[in-house]
Amino acid sequence: MQQQKIGQAWLNSHFPKGIFIIAAAATLLPVVQPPVALLLGIALAQTMGNPFAAITPRITHWLLQLSVVGLGFGMNIYSAGKAGKEGFILTIASIAGTLLTGLLLGRLLKIDKKTSHLISCGTAICGGSAIAAIAPVVKAGEKQISVALGIIFLLNAAALFIFPAVGHLLNLSQQQFGLWSAIAIHDTSSVVGAAGKYGDEALQIATTVKLSRALWIIPIAFISALVFKSEKSRIKIPWFIGIFIVALLLNTWVPAVQQISPLLVKSAKTGLSLTLFLIGANLTRQSLQGIGWQPLLQGIVLWCMISAGALAAICLLG
């Protein structure tokens, strides 16, 4: 009887971990697309939880950055510069509009000031990366950070499926969809996943515009420090964007790099599938509990506003 109890305890401890590892490995197969990987992660999170919850956020963080750098080897500096220039005005307008609207919504819905600011920054700039950078600047607590991240990641998961469907429905061009997804989808992972599903040109435009948008973390962090009177806080600069630019330059001017760039890009897309699986796996019941309807409503309203506004502007500009 004692041995049976020990065996059952071992099984209960190791079975979820085994299933999780097998599912993660499956996302590395070419047949598993990023949206499927995300759904698989969410399904496991909701049924058996995440047995590696202590380490998956850090793995996700590094894996996403490496994947984005790998995608840089599939682009050249000229097309990237053009894409960044086209999205510059929309980026400024959308960031300013989202932050101001978020401030008003936060006060109207009586949301904690720091939680509201994190949700607004995550929506305006680059999702979880912006929240991770701004949180120590405003000295946000663990609860405030988890609420903001839960909302952003939940809406990111929806965007990965909604945006390509809307893009095809409206017959958006590759250029239009790439620009739209970069502005309106929060996190880089879902931007790359949605744009990659739409087409290679959309992927290149979306990645470039999104990363140039991520640089706005720096001025927004300084402004946040002034508003929240925390000027001594350290600001995290997204260093991987610099490496992405180096990858662009190498792929543009070094023939030897151009020969291996297809392999690097393929590896990056595979890494992205695993990244989205891990993001989905972090959306456990526990992480979604206690979000509250007011912060969730703020996140949804801001997301709808930036999505509709950016889409209208892009369609008007042709």
TrEMBL record:
Chief localisation class: membrane
Subcellular location as annotated: Cell membrane
Membrane topology (UniProt): Multi-pass membrane protein
Regions that span the bilayer: 19-42, 62-81, 87-106, 118-138, 144-165, 177-199, 211-228, 237-256, 296-317
Coiled-coil region(s): none
Similarity section: Belongs to the UPF0324 family.
Protein name from the UniProt record: Sulfate exporter family transporter
Organism per entry: Chitinophaga nivalis
Lineage: Bacteria, Pseudomonadati, Bacteroidota, Chitinophagia, Chitinophagales
